[in-house]
Specification:
CATH topology of the domain at 1-158: Serine Threonine Protein Phosphatase 5, Tetratricopeptide repeat
CATH class of the domain at 1-158: Mainly Alpha
Helix content: over 70%
Number of helices: 16
Radius of gyration: 21 Å
Order of helices and strands: HHHHHHHHHHHHHHHH
Mean pLDDT: 84
Largest sheet: none
Structural class: mainly alpha
Number of strands: 0
Shape: globular
Distance between the termini: 22 Å
CATH architecture of the domain at 1-158: Alpha Horseshoe
CATH superfamily of the domain at 1-158: Tetratricopeptide repeat domain
Length: 308
Amino acid sequence: MKKGIIIYLLPALLLAVSLGAQTDEKYLDALKKTVSSSRNDTAVFSALSDLGWAYIVSQPLVSKNYAFQELALAKKINRPVYTAQAFNDLALSYSNMMMLDSSLYYNLRALDIRRQLNRKDLIASSLSKIGNIYVQQFKNDLALKHQLEALAIYEALKDDLKAGMLYADIGETYDNLHINDKSISYNEKAVKISEKLGDEYSYAKASVNLGYKYGQHKEYGKAYENIDRAIVIFEKINDSLSLSAAYSNKGVIKKQEGRLAEAEQLYKKSIEIATVLRDTLDISNTFHNLGALYIKNIQAAIAVGARY
């Protein structure tokens, strides 16, 4: 039987970028004024970095330009920690432009400097970002190597929040490698630690991924319990993108269980939300899943297939 396409939620790094890049015009104007008029290099660098962060999602090209200004200033004042931060910010900009090779290049340069400086927290941050890029490049063995090294650092630092984010990402990487017991184990860890910390998004994200794994093992009660819990949270925090993905993943499990009418309704609900968000990848993947339901009905399959 042909499997449905899984629609994963945002990795922890990408979530942080998405939620962190908020823009307020007065705030941006103040940052730009600092850049143009301040004689304090530290203040200018900080303002450039904040400006790049503000535009990282909506205008990554603008963000990249600010990051290059950061890099020029860091080299001028000979501050390696700033140079590494500039490389980090360039990597984020290129990642949001889906220029993954360039993003990897600058993340590796940031990591090299941070290792020289022996900044454990920053080393782990770079390792985590590099792992996420390798996942997107389908180099899951390399991704896992970097993610596990980052996790060991965060656990040693007793940084439960970042460790919890990595548990979820590592769970997804193990899933990509078809190592199901490890995938379930790390997603269970992610659920537990995010619940302990009161981190609702990470809790919901890990719950969806854990629910999907339970579904693969035909533990349908646990699967729906986890995904339904996540759906409630995504609705509460108004995270439509994750809500769309959760509905689609629940539809995949319903289809696997043979409850095709329910799967169809869940796919349609996911598509409706994704269409409003103009999330073309989610729409395409969910149409693929929906089309698979209609495979015995040629006309319906053609009609669905024509839309993606």
